[in-house]
Design goal:
The protein is of the alpha/beta class. It is 54% helix and 8% strand.
Amino acid sequence: MKFSLLSDEPVSEPEGDLLGAGTAARQLATLIHDSRAATPFTLAVDAGWGMGKSSLMCLVRAELTPREDVRTVWYNAWSATGADVLEGLIKTVLMKFDKRLLRRALHQLSQHGPLIRAVLATLTVVASPFGLAGLVDRLWRELSVDPRARATMRDELKKLAEEWARTTPDRPGRLLVVFIDDLDRCAEDTVLAVCEAVKAYLDLPGLAFVIGCDRSVLGPSGLLRDLGPAGSAFMEKIFQTSYRLPVAGGEDLRAYVRDCAERAGVRDLLDDAMVNLIADRSARNPRRIKRLINGFGLECSLNPVWTGIEPEAVIRTLLLQYLYPEFYRILVASDASAHTANAGREFLEYDTARRVLSRWVEPGPETWRAAVSSVSGHRLAPPDRERPDDWEAVLGRLEEQLPTV
């Protein structure tokens, strides 16, 4: 078997889209383009970890880039921290404006005081090999040392953006779409710095922001749970509109599993039942599917313990390892054979209790005994067989006692 690892990079071209995100990408790109008269605005692409936010954003960008009246820029919030976030995001936007407009804006700024005139005096950097990048860097350094200049910068940025995006008789209004990825992976101060940049400095005509994040992570019970009312209201202003990415399913997801297995070199080891198992037990999460197939290939090619073992056993073991890591560690602990046996029995009893108390199966003598044992083993009152309407509450109390996955 010739095995190769799968990359975790997002899909960047329509040809690589196997989960049907291309249709949504085309529609979102058209919506963003047709809404350019409503700029500035922010669109959040909302989904959990590994569910395809970055891929969808890449596909939207691929749809927008060929349009003559649109420019796009990508900013990964996770790659910057602290003060670098505000600086990096603003400079990233400035780099997309025309050098001619920047020079004109700097000329107008020269009327505001000696600091800006000092900037102009050093603008020989424009003619240097650094070009526009050097100009933007120098301007930022000079402005950032004087807090009074920040208000001026906001005003001048607005004028600059208005001129850049202006509609003329022979040209429709231009649009700059700023894609901000991985915001939900950042620390609280980074999240707030990005939001400050978007709302306080870059709330400009012609600019649209597409922000990839898991809104639940940034919500009141997540990363920003300590925000006060003012901070929460500020966040609501940032995320004006959200598109919730639907969970992939059906044949698209199975085709994705097969494609991943083909590229990894393990397709011949997976029959249809195995493909369905991977798709369903990975919570329909594309990143988890890649992770599972990478782990499967590594185990089959490098771990001699699996020699002669059916591939399904390897997959099920990896699912146990990834989804129930604490339980898996107990099972494989070399110095805890008695503990392992008890853990295995406890797990099987819980599985039976869950099926019985959820009323998925009619309890027989053995299954009822196992369900009662599972509940009583956690020092809870056992269920009453004659009161099935109470079983769901008993199961809820039982699951409160179990380890969190």
